Amino acid sequence: MKEKRLLEIEEIISELTVDLLVPIRTDKTVNKEAFDKLYLLLDELKILIKGENKINRRLVGLLFFIYTNVLAESEHAHYSSSVFIESARLEEYLSVILWDSPFGEMR
Question: Is 12 a residue whose pLDDT tops 80?
Answer without folding.
Answer: yes
